[in-house]
């Protein structure tokens, strides 16, 4: 192998091995954002999963799930008598101009623009309970961030 070739090393698996893989779970496209911090995958089921690089060691390249959302649904084009699959054909990150991230996703018919952003939430209701359902002290909660993927245009 020459010095200019890129060598891929498999180092991380998401999900459990026991899960049955369906056709809809097969990844159909992958796209990194310009900094490499975010990785978006699209699958044959029309879902987009965004992974964020771990902050600790950026040279190692571990990624964790950042957001998941349904981008495309199956539909029928009655004019052409054609079924349109929900499969994501392409994902493209747009240049970042504010704190939000924007990405485009497309199937065989529709291009959608998505705004992915973080919002701080106030501790209230279920946010005050731990994983066992016990109420936590609100002063012990430092940050509640929710990730929103909002369709801007299709």
TrEMBL record:
Family the entry assigns: Belongs to the phosphatase 2A regulatory subunit B family.
PANTHER family the record matches: PROTEIN PHOSPHATASE PP2A REGULATORY SUBUNIT B
Protein name listed in UniProt: PPP2R2A
Name of a matching Pfam family: WD40
Keyword Nucleotidyltransferase: no
InterPro entries, A to Z: PP2A_PR55, PP2A_PR55_CS, WD40/YVTN_repeat-like_dom_sf, WD40_repeat_dom_sf, WD40_rpt
GO cellular component entries: protein phosphatase type 2A complex
Native source organism of the sequence: Bugula neritina (Brown bryozoan)
Keywords associated with the record: Repeat, WD repeat
Example of a GO MF term: protein phosphatase regulator activity
Keyword Repeat: yes
